[in-house]
Amino acid sequence: MIEIRGVSKIFQDRKAVDGLSLTIHKGNIFGLLGSNGAGKTTLLKTIAGIYEPESGEVRIDGKPVFESPDTKGRVVFMPDFPYFFPQASIMQMADFYKSVYPGWSEDRFQELGNLFPLNPRRKLNRLSKGMRQQAAFWLALSCMPDVLIMDEPLDGLDPVMRRLVKNVLFQEVAERGITVVISSHNLREIEDLCDHIGIMHGGALLIDKELDELKSDTHKVQVAFRDERHEHALTAKLPVLHREQRGSVFLYIVKGDRKRIEEYFRVYDPYVLDLLPLTLEEIFIYEMEGAGYDIAPILL
Ligand SMILES: Nc1ncnc2c1ncn2[C@@H]1O[C@H](COP(=O)(O)OP(=O)(O)OP(=O)(O)O)[C@@H](O)[C@H]1O
C-alpha cells in the first residue's frame, strides 16, 4: 500500500504539489490524470523516493520511501524518456539493474526476451523511441518490482506492443499483486488499464475514485423542456458540471445517482430526455471546467 500524507513539493517559490494526500492499495492500477503542469511527474517522483518533499511523507507498506534503499529496491520508476547509460546495450543495462534491484529475476528477463523482439546486445542509442520504451519495460519488469511507477509509458509504442504491454501488466497484477501507478494524457489507454483514477490540477488532487464509480457518478443529460422556465428551476437543484444549449435542446453534465437525476427531470415531463454515459475523456474535461480550467476553446 502506498500512503501519501500531506505531501508538498516546492520548486523555487512554486508549489508543484500542494499538501496532497492519497492512498493507493496493493494490486491497484492507479491512473493519474491532470492538466499540463498539474504536478503529476513531481508526485510520481516523490512516490518513487527521487524527490524529498518539503512537507508530508510517502510510505510504502508502512515504511518511508525517501532515502530508504530497502523500500526503493522494491519500487521501479519509468520516466517518460527512458534514461540509459550512453553506449550501453540492454545486456549492460540489465547488469546494472541486477546490481541495484535485489528482486532482479534472470528467468523473468529471459521470459520477457521472448515477447519483446529486441536484440539485447544492440546499443540502446541505436534503437527507435518505441524500441527503447520496450527495452525500458523489459528491464523494469525483470526487476520484479512490488510498485511500478510509470510516466506516459505507452507513448511511442505501436498498437500491438501497447496491447502486449497492457497484458503483461494485467498478468503482473493478477499473479504477483503488484501496484501500478500510471500518469498519462491518453485517457482511452487509462480507461482500458486502470481500476482507480486520480485527477490533479494546480498541485492538488481533485478526484480520487474507482473508475466504475466515477463513470456511474457522472451523466450526460439531453433534454428538451416543455417550458424554458423549467430549466432554471431544475438546474438550481442539481450539481451541474457543464451546461450547453443547442436550439431547444439543453445538454447537462450532472453528478449524482442516475435514477435520482432522471426523477428530477421527469417531474417536468420534458419532450425529450436522454441520459447518456460519459467517456473518461469527457469526465476529465468537465471536471477540469469545474476546477476553473478554461475549456471553451475545445467546445467549438
Ligand atoms: N525540476 C524542476 N524545477 C523547477 N520547476 C519544476 C521542476 N519540475 C517541475 N517543475 C514545475 O512544477 C510544476 C509541475 O510540473 P510537473 O512536471 O510535475 O507537471 P505534470 O503534471 O507532469 O505536467 P505535464 O502533463 O505537462 O507533463 C510545473 O509548474 C513545472 O514548471
Automatic annotation (TrEMBL):
InterPro entries per the record?
A: AAA+_ATPase, ABC_transporter-like_ATP-bd, ABC_Transporter_VariousFunc, P-loop_NTPase
Q: Which residues form the signal peptide?
A: none
Q: Which residues form the ABC transporter domain?
A: 2-227
The UniProt record lists the keyword Repressor:
no
Q: Which UniProt keywords apply?
A: ATP-binding, Nucleotide-binding, Transport
List GO molecular-function terms, semicolon-separated.
Answer: ATP binding; ATP hydrolysis activity
Quote the protein name from its UniProt record.
ABC transporter
- Nucleotide-binding: is it a keyword of this entry? yes
Q: Which domain of life is it from?
A: Bacteria
